[in-house]
TrEMBL record:
Belongs to the jacalin lectin family. The lineage of its organism: Eukaryota, Viridiplantae, Streptophyta, Embryophyta, Tracheophyta. It comes from the Eukaryota. GO terms for molecular function: D-glucose binding; D-mannose binding. Residues 69-211 form the Jacalin-type lectin domain. This is Agglutinin alpha chain. Residues 229-249 are annotated as: Disordered. PROSITE patterns: JACALIN_LECTIN (PS51752). Keywords: Lectin. CDD domains: Jacalin.
Amino acid sequence: MVFGVHGLPSGLPLLPTSSSGQERRQTADTCFLALVAVVVLTLVSDYCRAFGFESGKDRASEKSKSNGIILLGPWGGNGGISWDDGTYHGVREIIVVYGRCIDSIQMVYDKNGKPVSAEKHGGVGGNQITEIKLQYPEEFLVSVSGHYSPMVHGCSPVIRSLAFKSNKRTFGPFGVEEGTPFTFSMDGGIIVGFNGRCGWYLDAIGFRLSRVQTTKFFQRVQKSLRKLTGTAAKSSAPSSKDGENKVHT
Protein backbone atom coordinates (compact mmCIF):
# COMPACT_ATOMS: atom_id res chain seq x y z
CA MET A 1 0.00 0.00 0.00
CA VAL A 2 1.03 3.61 -0.61
CA PHE A 3 0.17 6.20 1.95
CA GLY A 4 -0.15 9.67 0.33
CA VAL A 5 1.76 12.77 1.07
CA HIS A 6 0.74 14.38 4.33
CA GLY A 7 0.76 18.18 4.60
CA LEU A 8 1.29 20.81 1.94
CA PRO A 9 4.32 20.41 -0.35
CA SER A 10 6.76 23.31 -0.04
CA GLY A 11 10.42 24.06 -0.52
CA LEU A 12 12.79 22.18 -2.81
CA PRO A 13 12.35 18.44 -3.39
CA LEU A 14 14.74 16.04 -1.69
CA LEU A 15 17.32 14.48 -3.96
CA PRO A 16 16.77 10.73 -4.46
CA THR A 17 19.42 8.69 -2.69
CA SER A 18 19.23 5.74 -5.08
CA SER A 19 19.73 7.70 -8.32
CA SER A 20 22.97 7.83 -10.25
CA GLY A 21 25.34 10.77 -9.91
CA GLN A 22 24.25 12.18 -13.26
CA GLU A 23 20.56 12.06 -12.33
CA ARG A 24 21.29 13.70 -9.00
CA ARG A 25 23.17 16.54 -10.68
CA GLN A 26 20.35 17.04 -13.20
CA THR A 27 17.86 17.23 -10.35
CA ALA A 28 20.12 19.65 -8.48
CA ASP A 29 20.41 21.84 -11.59
CA THR A 30 16.61 21.90 -11.93
CA CYS A 31 16.22 22.88 -8.29
CA PHE A 32 18.89 25.55 -8.70
CA LEU A 33 17.09 27.12 -11.67
CA ALA A 34 13.82 27.11 -9.74
CA LEU A 35 15.54 28.81 -6.82
CA VAL A 36 17.05 31.45 -9.13
CA ALA A 37 13.58 32.17 -10.55
CA VAL A 38 12.17 32.61 -7.05
CA VAL A 39 14.98 34.99 -6.06
CA VAL A 40 14.64 37.08 -9.23
CA LEU A 41 10.84 37.31 -8.93
CA THR A 42 11.18 38.35 -5.29
CA LEU A 43 13.68 41.08 -6.16
CA VAL A 44 11.51 42.31 -9.04
CA SER A 45 8.53 42.49 -6.69
CA ASP A 46 10.57 44.48 -4.16
CA TYR A 47 11.77 46.78 -6.94
CA CYS A 48 8.24 47.47 -8.18
CA ARG A 49 6.98 48.24 -4.68
CA ALA A 50 9.95 50.53 -4.00
CA PHE A 51 9.40 52.49 -7.20
CA GLY A 52 5.65 52.89 -6.74
CA PHE A 53 4.44 50.44 -9.40
CA GLU A 54 1.11 48.96 -8.40
CA SER A 55 -1.06 46.11 -9.58
CA GLY A 56 -3.63 46.63 -12.32
CA LYS A 57 -6.40 47.01 -9.76
CA ASP A 58 -4.45 49.65 -7.83
CA ARG A 59 -3.57 51.57 -11.01
CA ALA A 60 -7.23 51.75 -11.96
CA SER A 61 -8.13 53.25 -8.58
CA GLU A 62 -5.18 55.66 -8.28
CA LYS A 63 -4.71 57.79 -11.37
CA SER A 64 -1.95 59.83 -9.70
CA LYS A 65 0.28 56.73 -9.52
CA SER A 66 -0.16 55.61 -13.12
CA ASN A 67 3.09 54.09 -14.38
CA GLY A 68 4.80 54.98 -11.11
CA ILE A 69 4.40 58.75 -11.76
CA ILE A 70 2.91 61.02 -9.10
CA LEU A 71 1.00 64.11 -10.27
CA LEU A 72 1.33 67.19 -8.06
CA GLY A 73 -0.66 70.42 -8.41
CA PRO A 74 -1.29 72.51 -10.30
CA TRP A 75 -0.97 75.60 -8.11
CA GLY A 76 -2.16 79.04 -9.27
CA GLY A 77 -5.21 80.38 -11.07
CA ASN A 78 -7.68 79.15 -13.67
CA GLY A 79 -6.87 81.69 -16.38
CA GLY A 80 -5.26 80.97 -19.72
CA ILE A 81 -5.22 77.56 -21.37
CA SER A 82 -3.90 74.27 -20.04
CA TRP A 83 -0.57 72.80 -21.16
CA ASP A 84 1.31 69.60 -20.42
CA ASP A 85 4.89 68.78 -21.40
CA GLY A 86 4.45 65.07 -20.67
CA THR A 87 6.85 62.72 -18.90
CA TYR A 88 10.59 62.43 -19.47
CA HIS A 89 13.61 61.00 -17.66
CA GLY A 90 14.56 64.30 -16.04
CA VAL A 91 15.06 68.06 -16.46
CA ARG A 92 18.24 69.46 -18.04
CA GLU A 93 17.47 73.20 -18.27
CA ILE A 94 14.86 75.75 -17.18
CA ILE A 95 14.43 79.20 -18.75
CA VAL A 96 12.45 81.64 -16.58
CA VAL A 97 11.30 85.09 -17.78
CA TYR A 98 9.92 87.31 -15.03
CA GLY A 99 9.23 90.78 -13.65
CA ARG A 100 6.33 91.43 -11.29
CA CYS A 101 5.30 87.82 -11.92
CA ILE A 102 6.48 84.79 -13.89
CA ASP A 103 5.82 85.80 -17.49
CA SER A 104 6.92 82.55 -19.10
CA ILE A 105 8.80 79.32 -18.51
CA GLN A 106 10.42 76.77 -20.81
CA MET A 107 12.08 73.45 -20.04
CA VAL A 108 14.68 71.28 -21.74
CA TYR A 109 14.15 67.66 -20.71
CA ASP A 110 16.21 64.49 -21.04
CA LYS A 111 14.93 61.56 -23.07
CA ASN A 112 17.18 58.54 -23.51
CA GLY A 113 20.26 60.66 -22.92
CA LYS A 114 19.30 63.38 -25.43
CA PRO A 115 18.00 66.93 -24.75
CA VAL A 116 14.41 67.67 -25.78
CA SER A 117 13.18 71.30 -25.80
CA ALA A 118 9.56 71.84 -24.80
CA GLU A 119 7.39 74.77 -25.87
CA LYS A 120 7.55 78.09 -24.04
CA HIS A 121 4.57 78.58 -21.75
CA GLY A 122 3.40 82.15 -21.12
CA GLY A 123 3.49 85.57 -22.77
CA VAL A 124 6.14 87.81 -24.31
CA GLY A 125 6.57 90.18 -21.35
CA GLY A 126 9.14 90.21 -18.59
CA ASN A 127 12.32 92.24 -18.20
CA GLN A 128 14.53 89.60 -16.59
CA ILE A 129 15.56 86.18 -17.82
CA THR A 130 17.40 83.37 -16.05
CA GLU A 131 18.61 80.15 -17.62
CA ILE A 132 19.19 77.31 -15.17
CA LYS A 133 21.46 74.53 -16.42
CA LEU A 134 21.60 71.36 -14.34
CA GLN A 135 24.59 69.02 -14.44
CA TYR A 136 22.33 66.18 -15.52
CA PRO A 137 22.30 63.23 -14.81
CA GLU A 138 24.43 63.76 -11.68
CA GLU A 139 22.26 66.75 -10.76
CA PHE A 140 18.49 66.53 -10.99
CA LEU A 141 15.48 68.64 -9.99
CA VAL A 142 13.81 67.60 -6.72
CA SER A 143 11.65 70.53 -5.58
CA VAL A 144 9.82 73.65 -6.78
CA SER A 145 8.28 76.36 -4.61
CA GLY A 146 6.71 79.77 -5.21
CA HIS A 147 3.81 82.17 -4.69
CA TYR A 148 0.62 82.95 -6.61
CA SER A 149 -1.84 85.86 -6.38
CA PRO A 150 -3.77 88.24 -8.71
CA MET A 151 -1.77 90.96 -10.47
CA VAL A 152 -4.84 93.21 -10.21
CA HIS A 153 -7.53 93.02 -7.54
CA GLY A 154 -10.43 90.85 -8.69
CA CYS A 155 -8.49 89.09 -11.45
CA SER A 156 -7.45 85.44 -11.58
CA PRO A 157 -4.25 84.55 -9.70
CA VAL A 158 -1.00 84.02 -11.61
CA ILE A 159 2.36 82.62 -10.54
CA ARG A 160 4.23 85.51 -8.89
CA SER A 161 7.47 83.74 -7.95
CA LEU A 162 9.33 80.47 -8.44
CA ALA A 163 12.33 78.82 -6.81
CA PHE A 164 13.95 75.54 -7.84
CA LYS A 165 15.98 73.06 -5.85
CA SER A 166 18.19 70.27 -7.17
CA ASN A 167 19.94 67.55 -5.21
CA LYS A 168 22.97 69.88 -5.12
CA ARG A 169 21.86 73.54 -5.39
CA THR A 170 19.03 76.06 -4.97
CA PHE A 171 18.00 78.55 -7.68
CA GLY A 172 15.95 81.69 -7.05
CA PRO A 173 13.50 82.89 -5.98
CA PHE A 174 12.58 84.63 -9.24
CA GLY A 175 9.77 87.19 -9.41
CA VAL A 176 7.89 88.71 -6.47
CA GLU A 177 7.25 86.63 -3.33
CA GLU A 178 3.71 87.85 -2.81
CA GLY A 179 0.46 85.97 -2.25
CA THR A 180 -0.20 82.34 -1.38
CA PRO A 181 2.95 80.23 -0.97
CA PHE A 182 3.27 76.67 -2.24
CA THR A 183 6.02 74.10 -2.00
CA PHE A 184 6.55 70.36 -2.10
CA SER A 185 9.30 67.83 -1.49
CA MET A 186 9.55 64.04 -1.39
CA ASP A 187 12.54 61.98 -0.34
CA GLY A 188 13.90 60.06 -3.32
CA GLY A 189 11.74 62.00 -5.79
CA ILE A 190 12.78 63.56 -9.11
CA ILE A 191 10.76 65.93 -11.31
CA VAL A 192 10.26 64.39 -14.76
CA GLY A 193 7.68 66.75 -16.26
CA PHE A 194 5.75 70.02 -15.89
CA ASN A 195 2.17 71.05 -16.64
CA GLY A 196 -0.08 73.99 -15.87
CA ARG A 197 -1.96 76.91 -17.43
CA CYS A 198 -0.77 80.00 -19.26
CA GLY A 199 -1.90 83.06 -21.22
CA TRP A 200 -0.22 86.45 -20.97
CA TYR A 201 1.55 85.06 -17.90
CA LEU A 202 2.21 81.71 -16.27
CA ASP A 203 -1.16 81.19 -14.58
CA ALA A 204 -0.56 77.83 -12.87
CA ILE A 205 2.10 75.16 -12.59
CA GLY A 206 2.18 71.47 -11.63
CA PHE A 207 4.67 68.63 -11.74
CA ARG A 208 5.20 64.97 -12.49
CA LEU A 209 7.32 63.21 -9.91
CA SER A 210 9.10 59.87 -10.19
CA ARG A 211 11.51 57.86 -8.08
CA VAL A 212 15.23 58.47 -8.53
CA GLN A 213 16.63 55.66 -10.70
CA THR A 214 19.16 53.44 -8.96
CA THR A 215 21.45 50.53 -9.77
CA LYS A 216 21.10 48.94 -6.33
CA PHE A 217 18.34 46.60 -7.52
CA PHE A 218 20.44 45.20 -10.35
CA GLN A 219 23.46 44.89 -8.07
CA ARG A 220 21.35 42.83 -5.66
CA VAL A 221 20.28 40.52 -8.49
CA GLN A 222 23.85 40.03 -9.69
CA LYS A 223 25.13 39.38 -6.18
CA SER A 224 22.40 36.82 -5.48
CA LEU A 225 23.00 35.02 -8.78
CA ARG A 226 26.76 34.87 -8.19
CA LYS A 227 26.18 33.40 -4.75
CA LEU A 228 23.71 30.82 -6.04
CA THR A 229 25.95 29.91 -8.98
CA GLY A 230 28.88 29.29 -6.66
CA THR A 231 26.77 27.09 -4.39
CA ALA A 232 25.41 25.07 -7.31
CA ALA A 233 28.88 24.56 -8.78
CA LYS A 234 30.13 23.10 -5.51
CA SER A 235 27.11 20.84 -5.05
CA SER A 236 27.29 19.43 -8.60
CA ALA A 237 31.05 18.78 -8.71
CA PRO A 238 31.94 15.18 -9.78
CA SER A 239 32.54 12.76 -6.92
CA SER A 240 33.34 9.04 -6.68
CA LYS A 241 30.59 8.72 -4.08
CA ASP A 242 28.02 9.46 -6.79
CA GLY A 243 28.85 6.20 -8.60
CA GLU A 244 31.16 7.79 -11.19
CA ASN A 245 34.44 6.21 -12.19
CA LYS A 246 37.40 8.08 -10.76
CA VAL A 247 40.39 8.08 -13.11
CA HIS A 248 43.81 7.68 -11.55
CA THR A 249 46.88 8.85 -13.44
